Amino acid sequence: MLFRQLEPRTARTAAEVMKFALWPFAVMTVLNRVFIKAINGFVTDDYRPVYNASFEFLNGRPLYTADFSSVDPHYLYYPSGTLLIAPVAAIEYELSRWLFIGLNAVAILLAWYLLLRLFKFGLGSVAAPALLLAMFTSETVVNTLVFTNVNGCLLLAELVFIHLLLQRRDLWAGVALGLSIAVKPTLAPLLLVAAVRGQWKVFVTAIGVPVTLTAIAWPLSADPEKFFTEVLPYLMKTRDYFNSSIGGNAAYYGLPHWLVLVTQGLMAGIVAVSLWLLWRYYRDDELFFVTTFSGVLLTASFLLLSLGQMYYSMMLFPFLMTVVLRNSVLRNWPAWLAIFGFMTYDKWLSDRWQSIGRNLEYLRVTFGWGLLLVVVFCVLGDRYLAARREGRLQFGIDPAWMAKAPDSRDGVEEKPTPAPAPDRDDPVTPIEEREPALK
User: Fold this and answer.
1) What are the tens digits of pLDDT across the range 153-164?
2) How many CA atoms lie within 13 A of 311 on its CB side?
3) pTM of the shown model
């Protein structure tokens, strides 16, 4: 059956044309990113400090010895994260790095499949190659593989968490989230999603897993207390390099502190109103609510907390996929201008206009995250004001025309192309009109 799918055929529908065109691009792009760009590596190497710390952990030596005055990548994982990731140092560095690249690539591919299924798409749909190509051409996937960090595994944990949360399998959803928090706190804001849905059992395992792993790792580490006395204070500070949060760019450009606080306060207000409108009017539309609420929360955390790096945007893939839902807040061009800002792999550094190019490159991520939050606020606010003006708030805030808009949940799985009818220009000769056979 697999080889039958690979058989060269001439497309008969527009959907088949798109699939036949996109699949080769998608597959070859994946192979290029994993086996060429990632293996080649880059001057930024997130994996080296992880490997070195894992090696020291396995040999009972101190881990948290980084010089935080430098801009080189540092080892910043919790003791629980060290316990989980320590096996990578059981083999020599180069092979270990290749295997870790492979692990993250597989995790991203599994997340891609889970994302398709979450929105009711199958591998036979046009969405499958389109999404795969979009993911592996984005900056977040490319640099996750090239820099060799753990973000691919975190994306998989996020998709598993969302699937289990929607299925009301709370304890297992908490396990998926807890394993990610044990390594990095990137997905910790998603606990609020479980809280507003009243799924409190999620907290049992989401908190219990990292606490248990920390308790196991503590006596096995030479200096676990230094994470809390040295690493954690560093993480709480807003650094002025490789940081696209509001505070990070403000520190780089030397903006006054009051302006930073006003900007952060304004954006926090926009986020709060958006989250309230989502909870008030969309919490019964579970798929839309969970994915959109999560996306707004994570975008806000990247923008408003002390550290926001461009490749964190990988965690927004479930939110961006909501564009296939009829009530999506992303069906407008400003939303995709914002997404271009933090997803594209393009570089805006210019040899001719150096100052302008540098500003565009350094600020596009911050403005992208900020514009996305503004778009969500404006779309939801406009729907709310229109519904209040028309006296239909008790029925929700979606306009009437939206009920007939296309939606992936309506059943978008493409049906197999039927066998072609006989060519009418060359009709089959009826039996009675054929010449009699020679006797």
Assistant:
1) 999 999 999 999
2) 20
3) 0.91
